[in-house]
């Protein structure tokens, strides 16, 4: 399938991509997740052949694609802004790639009807795309990408312009379509919820490097770095100073002291980052004053002294003192 080997690229004399390597297997959906400017879209353009890497290779089935132009790579690309032809009908937009391949008219009509059914747009063939809603236009864009039966699909922030409820509906449909067609896919987004809802595997991209590669559950349960934990909103990330060295030590923070076991082997006096996850029982208990309370999806997001955030089922008053248990994990150097 698709393999990237040590892809590097600079932008304005700064490294945008720095030795990025990963692969996408048959039927697998890989999400490139990172903040704006992390190089996600550039990486996608390199895979598509729209940009050249300064170093590294893009391979398909072990064959180097460096000399293969974009149109010959047989990859489908879906953009945030749909990139549809506004003067054409839905049918003509979806048929575009098939006509470029000089397929027979009957075969084109049959395939367009088939993919419009896949994306739930049966009966829309004769409509102008300018008369459609944003969600419907994105379905047309997906149908156009699916029509030529690409060997890889690529999505560049495809749901970024849609409202929340429509985005959730399309996410579920897109996941079902990808699983049903078994087309491997790369999905670029800065939205954690999108990535976790869609991905078989998540790659966290930061400062040109992949900091974490794993299933959604693996990435969430073990972010492995302070940046990843903060970006994902896994829990509270606090910094503290080691009071002893070795695999078992105590870390003093501004919200309390935590006994830690970890594999990093820190020295006494070293500053480390801890991930504090709210615990129902056990853990280290922290007593702190409530500074803010916000209702959030059947729970109350409560901010405590020191910036700690917890999720509670009942409302509290600002100024009230509470005690909360946390499990502490070492994330390494702060």
Description:
- With 334 residues, the chain is an alpha+beta fold.
- The chain contains 8 helices and 18 strands.
- The chain has 2 domains: 2-223, Rossmann fold (3-Layer(aba) Sandwich); 235-333, no CATH class.
- 25% of the residues lie in helices and 40% in strands.
- Helix 2 (90-100) packs parallel to helix 4 and helix 3 packs across helix 4 (134-146).
- It starts with a strand and ends with a strand.
Mean pLDDT: 91
CATH superfamily of the largest domain: P-loop containing nucleotide triphosphate hydrolases
Order of helices and strands: EEEHEEEHHHEHEHEEHHEEEEEEEE
Computed Rg = 24 Å
Low-confidence stretches: none
CATH class descriptor name of the largest domain: Alpha Beta
Into which percent range does the helicity of residues fall? Answer: 25-40%
How many domains, as an integer?
Answer: 2
Structural class: alpha+beta
- CATH 2nd-level architecture of the largest domain: 3-Layer(aba) Sandwich
Largest sheet: 8 strands, antiparallel
Strand order of the largest sheet: 13-12-11-14-18-15-16-17
**Count of DSSP E strands?**
18
Q: How many helices?
A: 8
Termini Cα gap: 37 Å
């Amino acid at each position: 399938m698709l393999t990237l080997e040590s892809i590097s690229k600079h932008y304005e004399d700064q490294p945008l991509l720095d030795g990025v390597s990963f692969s996408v297997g048959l039927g697998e959906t890989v999400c490139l997740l990172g903040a704006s400017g992390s190089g996600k879209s550039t990486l996608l353009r390199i895979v598509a052949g729209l940009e050249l890497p300064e170093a590294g290779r893009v391979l398909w089935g072990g064959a180097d694609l460096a000399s293969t132009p974009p149109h010959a790579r047989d990859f489908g690309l879906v953009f945030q802004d749909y990139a549809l032809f506004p003067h054409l009908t839905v049918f003509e937009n979806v048929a575009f790639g098939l006509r470029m391949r000089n397929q027979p008219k009957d075969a084109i009509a049959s395939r367009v009807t088939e993919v419009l059914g896949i994306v739930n747009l049966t009966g829309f063939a004769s409509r102008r795309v300018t008369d459609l809603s944003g969600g419907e236009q994105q379905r047309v864009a997906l149908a156009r990408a699916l029509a030529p039966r690409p060997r890889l699909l690529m999505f560049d922030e495809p749901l970024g312009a849609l409202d929340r409820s429509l985005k959730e509906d399309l996410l579920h449909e897109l996941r079902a379509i990808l699983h049903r067609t078994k087309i491997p896919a790369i999905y670029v987004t800065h939205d954690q919820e999108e990535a976790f809802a869609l991905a078989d595997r998540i790659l966290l991209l930061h400062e040109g490097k992949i900091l974490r590669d794993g299933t959604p559950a693996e990435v969430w349960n073990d972010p492995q770095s302070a940046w990843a934990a903060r970006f994902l909103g896994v829990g509270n990330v606090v910094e503290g100073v080691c009071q002893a060295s070795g695999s078992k030590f105590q870390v003093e923070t501004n919200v309390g002291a935590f006994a830690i076991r970890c594999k990093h082997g820190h020295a006494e006096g070293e500053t480390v980052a801890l991930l504090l996850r709210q615990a129902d029982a056990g853990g280290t208990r922290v007593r702190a004053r409530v500074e803010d309370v916000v209702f959030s999806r059947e729970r109350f997001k409560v901010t405590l002294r020191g910036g700690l955030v917890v999720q509670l089922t009942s409302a509290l008053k600002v100024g009230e003192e509470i005690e909360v248990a946390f499990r502490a994990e070492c994330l390494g150097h702060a």
